[in-house]
Amino acid sequence: MTTPQSLTDILTCYATPSAGMHPCHTLPLKLRAIRDAGFTLVEIAMFDIEGFAAQEHPGYKKMDEGGQGDIETLITVARKVNEICSELGLTILAVHPFEKFEGYKDAGRREDSFERAFTYFKVLKELNCQMMQIGSSDDPSSSPDLDIIARDLRQLADEANAQDPPIRLAYELWAWGAHVNTWEGTWEVCKRVNRPNFGLCLDTWQICARTYMNPDPSKDGSDLFSVSAGAPVVPAMTESLRNLTETFAAPKYREKIFYFQISDGSGPGRVNPAELLQQSKEQGIPPLYQCSTSWRPLPFMDDIYPGSNYGGFLPVLDVIEAVIRTGWRGPWSYEVFYQADMGKDDQEVPKKWTTAAMKSHEHILKALAPLHSANGAQD
């Protein structure tokens, strides 16, 4: 595949969980909406595939932590999903998320994790997909030792490379991760893994989250947001993005970015911190995780829908610009979550969000255009 030089030629992708969160938003409905919006690549969530399996096969038993369940049914459904994508002209860029894998010392837990990975590999084969995304573990019982984390991921990379066809692993920082929760952290792990099929998934929201939001806010949530809406980019973020550009500008490191996820984040004036903390407590998940699954609109959403209040406040363009300045021109995947809207019992939701994503992409390119010449070179 030829690497695009112009920003307008960059391949665009949309994630299936970002096309709706209600049971009426079936996987086939989401896939059609993604195709109709003009996307040629799709990122599919394993839970969307399993949700489709449950709809197609009542009584379906979901995959457990050891990769066990109604696996033959899951594989059959994966084959059907691939057929649907082929009919729609969609290529599956990646399957996500594979989580809570690395850093376990208990032999039984490690064995279960690898068995679950092998089940994922079977599903990827039926989907004709050669990339699996791994979220940095949010399990505090896992080891903080980066050598142990890298050991597990290195072994997984070797197993993935042995598949037919070989599978690439895209390691994504999760801002609520127990031990690895910055792009710098995932990069350090990536260097220690040191395998050609192991790289990174960078994400605008995840990169910004720990600077713009407090991972451990007070009980009333008054300090949830570290930066007010409309404030200049904070020095710590500026420095981190400068380092990102310098790191991945080297061609041998640039190729370690496997793909790039894009979303904004709702901030002060839109999110009620006390309510968010209560919801995170009820769900038993960290506040940043709750924020990630509920308050991640598209960039420029308030411009796309004038009069709305999605409240995006993160320096998304600065992050995108930092990645662009490395010279990397791989696929951009729009992965957004906005529970208040996506959770509605409304079959128009997939169309609304996928169409808005393509408009968001156009807004981003227009905003970046003054910084780049027509051929994509830096000014």
TrEMBL record:
Domain (Xylose isomerase-like TIM barrel) spans 31-344
Q: Which domain of life is it from?
A: Eukaryota
Pfam families per record: AP_endonuc_2
Q: Signal peptide: which range, if any?
A: none
Q: What is this protein called?
A: Xylose isomerase-like TIM barrel domain-containing protein
